[in-house]
Specification:
mainly alpha, two-stranded parallel sheet, 54% helix, globular
C-alpha cells in the first residue's frame, strides 16, 4: 500500500515537473515519517518519465522539519497574521 501511494505521488511529481519545471521538490508533512520507504519509489517513478530528461529532472528532498512542517508553518502564519 505504501509503495502504491508513493508511486501515485511520483506520478504527481511528473505532472508538476512538466507544468512548472522546478529544480527541487521538498517533501514535508506526514509523508516524511516513512521517507525511507517512499523516497526510492517516488524517485524511480520520476526517473521513469520519458518526457523529463536527466538534466531537467528535479531533486527530491525531505524537509528538515519532517512531519512537523505543517504545524510550524501554521504557527508562523498565525504569528505574522495576528
Amino acid at each position: 500500500m505504501v509503495e502504491r501511494a508513493a508511486r501515485y505521488m511520483g506520478l504527481a511529481l511528473i505532472s508538476l515537473t512538466n507544468a512548472i519545471d522546478p529544480e527541487l521538490f521538498v517533501m514535508g508533512g506526514g509523508v516524511t515519517r516513512s521517507w525511507a520507504l517512499v523516497q526510492p519509489t517516488m524517485l524511480a517513478t520520476l526517473k521513469s518519465s520519458p518526457f523529463i530528461k536527466p538534466a531537467r529532472r528535479p531533486l527530491l528532498r525531505r524537509a528538515r522539519l519532517g512531519d512537523r512542517a505543517g504545524q510550524v508553518g501554521a504557527v508562523e502564519w498565525a504569528r505574522i497574521n495576528q
